[in-house]
Amino acid sequence: CFLDSMATLGLAAYGYGIRYEYGIFNQKIRDGWQVEEADDWLRHGNPWEKARPEYMLPVHFYGRVEHAAAGAKWVDTQVVLALPYDTPVPGYMNNTVNTMRLWSARAPNDFNLQDFNVGDYIQAVLDRNLAENISRVLYPNDNFFEGKELRLKQEYFVVAATLQDIIRRFKASKFGSTDSVRTVFDSFPDQVAIQLNDTHPAMAIPELMRIFVDIEKLPWNKAWDITKKTFAYTNHTVLPEALERWPVDLVEKLLPRHLQIIYEINQRHLDHIASLYPNDVDRLRRMSLIEEGGTKRINMAHLCIVGSHAVNGVAKIHSEIVKTQVFEDFAALEPEKFQNKTNGITPRRWLLLCNPGLAELIAEKIGEDYVRDLSQLTKLHEFVDDDLFIREVAKVKQENKMKFALYLEKEYKVKINPSSMFDVHVKRIHEYKRQLMNCLHIVTMYNRIRRDPARLFVPRTVIIGGKAAPGYHMAKMIIKLINAVAHVVNNDPVVGSKLKVIFLENYRVSLAEKVIPATDLSEQISTAGTEASGTGNMKFMLNGALTIGTMDGANVEMAEEAGEENLFIFGMRVEDVTELDREGYNAEEYYNRLPELKQAIDQIANGFFSPEEPDLFKDVVNMLFHHDRFKVFADYEAYVTCQEKVSELYLNSKAWTKMVIRNIAAAGKFSSDRTIKEYARDIWHVEPSDLKIPPPNEPRDAAEDKTLNGTAA
């Protein structure tokens, strides 16, 4: 979304990353369990990429540091080559094409053959794989840090190649004017802005310092001033288990010079703190880049904050938590450094491409300009009482549902009722996202139908999808539980077509493009204070779904834009969660007080959904009672009550669709164009340009004449 918006806004921006040979695994569901398969996405070639061997660059690992009068030298290193592949990123109808450059690891041709061990030539060639493994596979963890050496190699690999590329481009430009001997880097931060997407590229900070100090021979203070002005850091999570904390021993082995530079950065940083807060040793401990106690670790978030001129969260509530809780000491020191940049999505992919029916309907009412300026969607408020428009919006949704129902029938051999409410919960499987709470609601609905089959029940198709990290046991158990519940519910003749449960296999962007336009109800039910922003929530809103959600992440701003009465908001706020933590959360209390919750939990615990293996879900039940950090039981009652309100409104198709229109009309803020304009203005200090570059087939002078007449401007 960000690359699409940067190109559409005419920014000269590059996206850098790794060209993984294997992306996120393909998920298969076998007997209700997740099974991973390798995603060999390049098997049939990739027509959009172009290898650029002429820009190949060396990246160094291991070795040792020599100190001489001339300064530090990193020697005896192992070299891996970084081969760039370029993918074009076209802006929307503006003849601008930017570049995404992804690096692939290659062994140098003399790899393992440099020394006098030429004896085993065959083995030396086979060992080239060791170097090339760096870009082999994406680590599939979501919101979890796993301190593996290969992962640190990947992080440094992308950073080292990218910084060399940036500096090469700077030196080739008129700004890197060389006074015969040395490049003048004073203008570097005016020409280059680097946005650190989470802490994964944090090694860019010591790497740029290494280049400036060791190679370009700048004095430390000058180098540090330029470095800080160049970098800005975006934080993406507040979960402690997700924060990167690399063991000092590992960094010392892999990147010895960088460790020395990090120690120097830390020393100067702590000296500064000590001068401001004399004798406050606890503050020094809290703010250090190095965590002592047990194995010494480098806190990469602290490194990013100290080495950047701007730090931002990705939704208002998240940025507040970043400032007042997670990094409060740093915010007290430099409050002006901390900002908010609420995430956004590109309306090109997430409306025009995936939902052409709705996009066309909107264009008929307000024109086509909204595609580049999504704030124009507010014009739809004029049509909220237009009966014809209401019917047309409902018709587009119904067509999308029919199309998706056909897809499900073809792919999964399940027959679903297209007039039922499509209740959709798609995202990575994680305890904080509370797929378990949705599961308990499904069981509750099931029990209500069985208790009173004659009672009016608003039919639902509940669709849950998402991948669990391969090593995340609880997330895999949650998938198995959902599938076990689905099996019982879908085969109970008493239930019939009133309730169907589908676990959507291998959820990914291409599948999101199909399911989101067909959704009636979007589930955004994380425990308040845990989801940094979310972007699926915005995609659903733009595509005519209503949201049931907690006051978390961007849900808060969605409610602010549309009016809280136009979302189904329920449950604890951040303050309530904090208060409950203070009192102590006692799950048993809710279990004993709420008969429907007790019944659902007892069924899961007693093997009602797993008769062949009655204690299959004992770990899940035990977690919910004794160590549920995300307090599923505490929000259960409010959630079920809120779901009753959802069903009630769904019975009134016209009232439902009017609420849908109010949501679409309020979705304009959540365009990534708005987000990128804010980054450009507040952090990068660049101006977006809406000048349409003339197409290559048009003579330049003709294009200039047009511009003067104001048609191409």
TrEMBL record:
Modified-residue entries (N6-(pyridoxal phosphate)lysine), positions: K539
Assigned EC number: 2.4.1.1
Annotated GO biological process: glycogen catabolic process
Keyword presence, Transferase: yes
Basic and acidic residues bias spans: 698-707
Region entry Disordered, spans: 688-713
Broad enzyme group: transferase
Keywords per UniProt: Allosteric enzyme, Carbohydrate metabolism, Glycogen metabolism, Glycosyltransferase, Phosphoprotein, Pyridoxal phosphate, Transferase
Catalytic activity: [(1->4)-alpha-D-glucosyl](n) + phosphate = [(1->4)-alpha-D-glucosyl](n-1) + alpha-D-glucose 1-phosphate
Cofactor(s) of this protein: pyridoxal 5'-phosphate
Pfam families linked to this entry: Phosphorylase (PF00343)
Molecular functions per Gene Ontology: glycogen phosphorylase activity; pyridoxal phosphate binding
Annotated InterPro entries: Glycg_phsphrylas, Glyco_trans_35, Pyridoxal_P_attach_site
Gene Ontology CC entries for this record: cytoplasm
UniProt keyword Amino-acid biosynthesis, yes or no: no
Family assignment from sequence similarity: Belongs to the glycogen phosphorylase family.
Function: Allosteric enzyme that catalyzes the rate-limiting step in glycogen catabolism, the phosphorolytic cleavage of glycogen to produce glucose-1-phosphate, and plays a central role in maintaining cellular and organismal glucose homeostasis.
Subunit architecture: Homodimer; enzymatically active. Interacts with PPP1R3B; recruits the phosphatase PP1 which dephosphorylates and inactivates PYGL/glycogen phosphorylase.
Name of protein: Alpha-1,4 glucan phosphorylase
Species, as recorded: Baryphthengus martii
Record gene name: Pygl
